[in-house]
DNA sequence: CTGAAAGCGCTAACAC
DNA sequence: GTGTTAGCGCTTTCAG
């Protein structure tokens, strides 16, 4: 930086000021300094800067699984509001690995980011590792903080499950199945609770839980075989805990006599996975609004960064919404 | 850190050593120090550390579009080899925005990462911004550096296009169409070249280019309408420049008389998009091996970080591979 | 605006 | 192993 100062024929402090307090520097000298910066290819050392100021203008987000478009949406939302506040967002991927998640958190902590957003692996696996961060502001995304120690934003999973089941019931379906598991995934358990609540509110409607070992397409295909074995007419409505599950089941069932989708069996998925609308039969789904969750989470983090540790740690709940498509509406649905 | 030293009853230098040169410290004192660290919740300040050493153990990757699973694969591959070398990988998303891309590069440059990987927006839009980085080692992914100033890893797009067309020709198809555009996307242009080369090598086979305005599903649907208008039998094989394009076209064409896929029209896509195997008709595709590209790119970067600026800037070419599925093989194909 | 200087938290080198 | 110290590149303050 002193090179720049010499090259521009100004004082070192003036160089610093043109970068940080441009209004304290006259138009003319500012341009001289910037010319020198460009000429020398000077790049300010952010490590030294944040050492000196004790602050940083970047925030980090730790994502459970980048392969899941839901998390990418969260990151995109967080990035948008971070930029609005003049901050940068950097991402670390835990890749469904608890050890990597811890490393990523430490990484951000040690590099003294202004704050961190954490979209952790599913709750059941995390509970217990209560103390996540002490000094750095931390906001949880898609995870309900137990202790109230952290601010956060979560989706109302139960509401989503309720909406899904209620949609099918509204279409006249009475013999429902809920596809999903394992139940130690709290999101799945809550979605099931919501579906049960909808059924309980509608006399004459039944719901059976078909537990799966996971939420991916192969699990859906496996469950599809089970449903097939139960015989046509056993169910006339299917709530799947994920879009992938729904697609897998549809791949097996649709076309088989007595299992036409949606005539014999109306299907609703969950997540609004990006390809759900492009699969063999576009899947009705529950959208969790990942991008909005990211925006809100980043906003909570900004509050905390500015407000200090006294800021109240609120948890914002985002309501998911139904997006009906062909798998439940049939020909009544049309693309766009 | 001096707090830790006092708390453990050792010298400041010893604390530094237990973290950086554990072998220079006796077992006993090392444990004392670590206990103090845990007790005080001490977190080493990486900004100060990298200021003092002039080095960093994290590398950054700037990705053109996180929504595209190809880039996520690249990041995953890079992360794997970075960890093998004891380094951390942080990600910044350009979100198909040139301005964000520049900001992200500067961000990493200023934070003095050990090196950066850049998977940039398509070449045509980037050419000209020749000087990307001076001081920080930089390796390009999925982009052919013109000047030889940067190391890089790219896919052999022409080979991919050749393979796709050759696959159809091998199946006895003779009236091919190539779907894709705009041609100022160099990847598309090169894939088309490859397809043309395959056709030229096989007398009696023809290929017509149907230009699209983009590579997404709606563009594919639009092109599908065009093909439909041309009448049944005009084409018997279709090479699409992306899986999304292929899916869109199939959505329109399959089922229409004379357009059964693959009987009347065999289709090959490109990218091995994660959902390509789960669409209405699983799409044959060309896989670019994103994860391997990421691994190789990170390895090149490691070489450069260790070897200094004298390291030769090589460009590694990864050959894409055909993954045949139902859209070209028909019933001969079985899942897995 | 200049010029000088203290200090951010750490590493690395020194004599003991 | 200890205790001390210079210095990484920047910000910030102060008198002029």
Automatic annotation (TrEMBL), chains A, B:
Tree of life domain: Bacteria
Classification via InterPro entries: HTH_LacI, LacI/GalR-like_sensor, Lambda_DNA-bd_dom_sf, Peripla_BP_I
Keywords: DNA-binding, Transcription, Transcription regulation
SMART domains membership: HTH_LACI (SM00354)
Entry keyword Calcium: no
Domain HTH lacI-type: 1-53
One annotated GO molecular function: DNA-binding transcription factor activity
Name listed for the protein in its UniProt record: LacI family transcriptional regulator
């Amino acid at each position: 930086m002193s090179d720049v100062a010499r090259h521009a024929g100004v004082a070192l402090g003036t160089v610093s000021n043109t970068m940080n307090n441009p209004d304290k520097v006259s138009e003319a000298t500012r341009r001289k300094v910037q010319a020198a910066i460009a000429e020398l290819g000077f790049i300010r050392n952010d490590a030294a800067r944040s050492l000196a100021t004790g602050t940083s203008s970047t925030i980090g987000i730790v994502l459970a699984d980048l392969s899941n478009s839901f998390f990418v949406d969260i990151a995109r939302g967080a990035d948008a509001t971070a930029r609005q506040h003049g901050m940068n967002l950097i991402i670390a991927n835990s890749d469904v690995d608890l050890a990597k998640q811890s490393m990523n958190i430490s990484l951000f902590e040690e590099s003294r980011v202004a704050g961190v957003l954490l979209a952790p692996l599913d709750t059941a696996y995390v509970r217990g590792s209560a103390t996540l961060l002490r000094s750095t502001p931390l906001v949880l995304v898609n995870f309900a903080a137990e202790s109230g120690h952290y601010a956060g934003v979560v989706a109302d999973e139960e509401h989503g499950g309720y909406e899904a089941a209620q949609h099918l019931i509204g279409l006249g379906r009475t013999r429902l199945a809920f596809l999903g598991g394992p139940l130690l995934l709290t999101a799945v358990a809550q979605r099931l609770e919501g579906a049960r609540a909808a059924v309980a509110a509608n006399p004459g409607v039944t719901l059976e839980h078909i537990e799966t070992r996971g939420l991916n397409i192969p699990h859906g295909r496996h469950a599809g075989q089970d449903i097939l074995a139960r015989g046509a007419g056993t169910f006339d409505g299917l709530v799947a805990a994920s879009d992938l599950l729904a697609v897998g089941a549809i791949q097996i069932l649709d076309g088989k006599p007595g299992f036409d989708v949606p005539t014999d069996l109306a299907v609703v998925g969950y997540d609004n996975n990006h390809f759900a609308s492009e699969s063999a039969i576009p899947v009705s789904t529950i959208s969790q609004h990942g991008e909005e969750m990211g925006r809100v989470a980043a906003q909570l983090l900004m509050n905390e960064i500015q407000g200090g540790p006294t800021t109240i740690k609120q948890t914002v709940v985002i309501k998911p919404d139904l997006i009906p498509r062909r798998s439940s509406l049939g020909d009544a649905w049309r693309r766009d």
